[in-house]
Amino acid sequence: ALVLGAGGAARAVIAALLADGAPAVRLANRTRARAETLREHFGARVEIVDWTQASAAADGAMTIVNTTSMGMEGQPALPLRLDAAPRGALVTDIVYAPLVTPLLVQASALGLASVDGLGMLLHQAAPGFERWFGVRPEVDDDLRAAVLAK
User: Fold this and answer.
1) Using one digit for the tens of pLDDT, what is the confidence trace for 17-75?
2) Each residue of 91-102: pLDDT tens digit?
3) Is the Cβ–Cβ distance between 9 and 67 less than 8 Å?
4) Which of 14, 124, 146, 150 gives 20 to 30 Å between its CA and that of 33?
5) Alpha-carbon distance 63 to 129, whole Å?
6) CB neighbours (10 Å) of residue 42?
7) Cα-based distances in Å from 38 to 6, 19, 71
């Protein structure tokens, strides 16, 4: 797996990947010190990749996750090329504005599976909604459709 970014979302993504059995996670971040902090937390199963080598690090990565703000409206583009990603790789971008980011467009053009950031946003919002209104919404296709209809 390849994870881009080293903030709280990256920490959660890495924890989930390792818990689900990923043998190792490559981590690339613009600030190497922040990536080192995550590697110290998770140990040797996290390998730091220089930010400038992130595109090459996609080689062999069956899961590629962008947790940076790059590619979001008003932010710089994510300088990641997916040419080295293997067939069958899954690319996800937690950015939700725009919902279809240039990274996801690139993944689709290469025939790679892609997942946008709306699901993660909805799962993050569900506990807050429950706290305010006393009921936890089910995060499903109907909720996704309702949010997209707005």
Assistant:
1) 999 999 999 999 999 999 999 999 999 999 999 999 999 999 999 999 999 999 999 99
2) 999 999 999 999
3) yes
4) 124
5) 30
6) 16
7) 7, 15, 23
pLDDT digits (tens, 9 = 90+) for 127-144: 999 999 999 999 999 999
**Domains of the chain: which residue ranges?**
2-116, 118-150
Q: Say if CB 68 and CB 77 are below 8 A apart.
A: no
Write the Ramachandran bin of 95: left for phi over 0, alpha for psi from -120 to 50, otherwise beta: beta
User: Is the CATH code 3.40.50.720 the one for domain 2-116?
Assistant: yes
Tokens of 20: 């689900």
Helix (H, G, I), strand (E, B), or coil: what is residue 40? helix
CB-facing half-sphere around the CA of 79: CA atoms within 13 A: 9
Closest CA to 87 of 115, 53, 110: 110
Q: Which residues pair with 115 in a beta bridge?
A: 92
Q: Distance between CA 145 and CA 137 in Å, rounded?
A: 13
Residue 150 pLDDT more than 90?
no
Which amino acid belongs to residue 122?
Answer: L
